[in-house]
Write a structure and sequence with these properties.
- With 417 residues, the chain is an alpha/beta fold.
- 31% of the residues lie in helices and 25% in strands.
- It has 14 helices and 24 strands.
- The N and C termini lie close together (7 Å).
- 53% of the residues are buried.
- Bound molecules: ligand EPZ.
- The site of ligand EPZ has 24 residues, from helix 1, helix 5, helix 6 and helix 12.
Length: 417
C-alpha cells in the first residue's frame, strides 16, 4: 500500500489550482440515471470515489466515457436496478443512485451502506422521504428494496439537514407526479449545483440552497452538459496548510462565496485571507492564535474542515475548543496528532480541547478517513523531521494528486509505492 513521506518545515509559497468538487460530482453523476440519453460533465476530479461511482453506473448498464476531466454517461442502456454490496461498501455515497433508479424504473435495490470510520451514517431520512412519495421500502439481507408504481409529489420534512438525503429526494421528485416540497433541507453549495444541473435537464426545481425546496414533477429529463463546481474543502485544506506553514499561497479557481465559514475562522487565527477574482491568497506570516470551532450545517463551519483546522490549532498560541456536532466519531486524527506531540484532550465524545505547542515532531502515522488523512499531511508539513503516513488510499478517495500539488508549493513530500 502506498505511503506518503514528508520532511517538514518548508513554508508553502506559490499558486495551486483547485479541482472539481467530489461532493458535487458524485450526485451529478448519479443524476445521469434519470436521463434516457447522454449527460456530459466537465471539470470532474480524477478521484477513487469518482471511479467507484462510474463502475457502479456501468454495472447498472450505463456507458461511461471519460478523459481529461470530461465524463460522458449514456443512461439509455441501463438494464439493472441493483447496486451490489461490493460496489456500495467501497463508497457509501452510492446511496445516491437509490432515488434516481426508483424515479426512472419504479424499482431499486441498493445495498445498505454500512457505517464508516466517522460514524454510523444511517439513511433513515432518505427512506422516509421516498416512502412519503409513495414508495414501499423493504430491508432484507442487507439490501434496501424500494418499489413504486407511480411517485406522487408530497411534503417531506427532514429531521435534520441531510446533504445526500436532500440530494436523493430532490432528484427523485423531478419525475414524480405533482409538486414535492422538501423542508429543513441542507443548504450546501453542492445542492444548489445539483438543482441547477437538474433544471438544465428540464426539471423544475426551486429554492435549492435554502431550507425549502419545491420540485414540480415533469414527464422526463433530457440530455445536458454540466460543469462541476470547484471543491471548497480542497481549497480550505490548502488555505489551512498555507497558514500553518507560515506561507504565502494563492488558491486559484475556488469560489470564496461558498467558503465564508472557512475564511471567517482563518481570519480569526490571524492569518491574512485576501479575496480576488481568481480565488484567495492566504498568508500565515504573522503567527497563528487559537480560536474555538463548532462544526455546523452549511453555511456554518464545515465538518469536513474540522480535522484540518485542528492541526492549525495544535501549533497556535493559546488554547482552543473544537466541538464536532455533525458526526459522532470524527476525532480519529487526534491520537495520531498526539503521537506527533500535539496536546489535545477529548471529552464527552465530541469536544476536543487543544493547547498550542511550539512545534510538532515527525512520526509514522496511520490515516483513518479522508479528512483525517488530509490533517496528517498538514501536520507533516509543519512538523520537525520526517512524517510517514500509511493507508493513503483514504486520501486518494477525495484529493486529486495531493502530494504533487503540495510539492509544487515547495513542500518536501513524496509518495512511496
Ligand atoms: C455529506 O455526507 C458529505 N458526503 C460528507 O462529506 C459531509 O461530511 C456530510 O455531508 C456533512 O456535511 C457527500 O456529499 C458525498 P448528512 P452525508 O446526511 O450526506 C445524520 C467527505 O469527507 N443522518 O448530511 O452522508 C448523519 O449520521 C464526506 O467528503 C441521519 O441520521 O451527511 C450525520 O450525523 C464525509 N439519517 C448527519 O445526519 C440520515 O438519513 C449529517 O449527515 C442521513 C443523515
Amino acid at each position: 500500500m502506498d505511503k506518503i513521506e514528508i520532511n517538514g518545515g518548508n513554508r508553502l509559497a506559490g499558486e495551486v489550482r483547485i479541482s472539481g468538487a467530489k461532493n458535487a460530482a458524485l450526485p451529478l453523476l448519479a443524476s445521469s440515471i434519470l436521463v434516457n440519453g447522454v449527460t456530459e460533465f466537465t471539470n470532474v476530479p480524477d478521484l477513487m470515489d469518482i471511479r467507484s461511482i462510474k463502475l457502479l453506473l456501468e454495472d447498472l448498464g450505463a456507458t461511461c466515457e471519460d478523459g481529461d476531466g470530461r465524463v460522458r454517461i449514456d443512461g439509455s442502456g441501463i438494464n439493472k436496478v441493483e447496486a451490489a454490496y461490493d460496489l456500495v461498501r467501497k463508497m457509501r455515497a452510492s446511496i445516491l443512485v437509490l432515488g434516481p433508479l426508483l424515479a426512472r424504473f419504479g424499482h431499486a435495490r441498493v445495498s445498505l451502506p454500512g457505517g464508516c470510520a466517522i460514524g454510523a451514517r444511517p439513511v433513515d431520512m432518505h427512506l422516509k422521504g421516498l416512502e412519503a412519495l409513495g414508495a414501499t421500502i423493504e430491508i432484507e439481507h442487507g439490501y434496501i428494496d424500494a418499489r413504486v408504481d407511480r411517485l406522487i409529489g408530497n411534503e417531506v420534512y427532514f429531521d435534520l439537514p441531510t446533504v445526500t438525503g436532500t440530494e436523493n429526494l430532490m432528484m427523485t421528485a423531478t419525475l414524480a407526479t405533482g409538486t414535492t416540497v422538501l423542508r429543513n433541507c441542507a443548504r450546501e453549495p453542492e445542492i444548489l449545483a445539483l438543482a441547477d444541473a437538474l433544471n438544465r435537464m428540464g426539471a423544475d426545481v426551486k429554492g435549492a440552497g435554502t431550507a425549502v425546496i419545491t420540485i414540480n414533477g415533469v414527464e422526463a429529463l433530457k440530455p445536458a452538459t454540466v460543469e462541476v463546481i470547484p471543491d471548497r474543502i480542497e481549497a480550505g485544506t490548502f488555505m489551512v496548510a498555507a497558514a500553518a506553514t507560515g506561507g504565502d499561497v494563492q488558491v486559484l479557481g475556488c469560489d470564496p462565496e461558498n467558503m465564508g465559514g472557512i475564511i471567517n475562522k482563518l481570519r480569526q487565527t490571524g492569518a491574512s485571507v485576501e479575496i480576488f477574482d481568481q480565488g484567495v491568497r492566504v498568508k500565515g506570516d504573522r503567527g497563528i492564535v487559537s480560536t474555538d470551532i463548532k462544526t455546523l450545517p452549511y453555511p456554518g463551519f464545515p465538518t469536513d474542515m474540522q480535522a484540518q483546522f485542528m492541526v492549525l490549532m495544535t501549533i497556535a498560541q493559546g488554547n482552543s475548543v473544537i466541538h464536532e456536532t455533525i458526526f459522532e466519531n470524527r476525532f480519529m486524527h487526534v491520537n495520531e496528532l498526539q503521537r506527533m506531540g500535539a496536546d489535545i484532550t477529548v471529552s464527552g465524545g465530541n469536544y476536543a480541547r487543544v493547547r498550542g505547542v511550539a512545534n510538532l515532531s515527525g512520526a509514522e502515522v496511520m490515516a483513518s478517513d479522508l479528512r483525517a488523512s488530509a490533517s496528517l499531511v498538514i501536520a507533516g508539513l509543519v512538523a520537525r523531521g520526517v512524517t510517514t503516513i500509511h493507508r493513503v488510499y483514504h486520501i486518494d478517495r477525495g484529493y486529486e494528486a495531493l502530494e504533487k500539488k503540495f510539492s509544487a508549493l515547495g513542500a518536501d513530500i513524496k509518495r512511496i509505492r
